[in-house]
Design goal:
Layout (H helix, E strand, L loop, with lengths): L17 E3 L6 E9 L5 E9 L4 E7 L5 E7 L4 E9 L9 E9 L8 H5 L1 E3 L5 E2 L3 E10 L1 E3 L11 H5 L6 E3 L1 H9 L7 E3 L22 E19 L7 E18 L6 H8 L1
Parallel strand pairs: 2-9, 7-12, 10-15
Antiparallel strand pairs: 1-8, 2-3, 3-4, 4-5, 5-6, 6-7, 11-12, 11-13, 14-15
Length: about 270
Amino acid sequence: MNARVTLPASVQIAFVVFTLVLSVSFCSQLTVLVRLNDGQITEELLEADSEKDIITVEFKQADGTLITFLSDFKRRVKIFRALVLGEPEKGQSQYQALCFISHLDHGELIPSEAMARLRQKNPHVVRSAEERRGVEQFTMNVVLNMSGSWHLSTHIRNVCRDARDLVYTRQQDVQHWLDKGVEGSIFEVFPKSLNASVLQSCSSTTDPWQPCACSYRLNLEWFPCQLKYCRGQGPNPYKCGIKSCSKGYCFDFYTRHKQLCLWDEDAWFT
């Protein structure tokens, strides 16, 4: 991470630190210094494209894992991708990609048009979220066929191309999309010979080649979740900034052998 200039102590940041400005550009990038849950600081890159109607949040965790979160507002789909560094001494490749797809609810983030107009007054200040939204649990019991992923979102193939057959979603989201007319053949429930709900957890499985239930946890420590409104001289309030939130996500999913879930083993013993 590049060295950052420290602001003088006299600089006050009690005022709104992010403002919305008019812009003719459809795209924007914003780099924010964010304090992670373990106290370390990372650079978070936020990109907005109001023409495509997407927002992307990307950052590295302390262990080197690259986290990408893409919100597709046109198709109401959110995509989580984790590029987890491998452990060669345990027979793993350079990195392992995981992708989790879910329905995007209204109000989870600010609109992409508002994000594209966001500017930061103090780029050297380390940010912490104003609101912590807790942890959401996901049981990812369906695999998405990448060849037909465009039925859900055209961005899935690009974001999840390294995950291959490790692209997961959940049955309640599948039902939502089926009700919207999405082609059902792109979804595949776990092998009928295996009951994912009673699989032994990977953290307690001794055989590295045994199928098991894996868990992966990630935190979005800072993202723009709501717009702020201020009152001026006129009768109507105007958009004058954003509220920031953090949120945790825990994904439970089937994996064909424990060797693909070694981080779960590490978590078990800590």
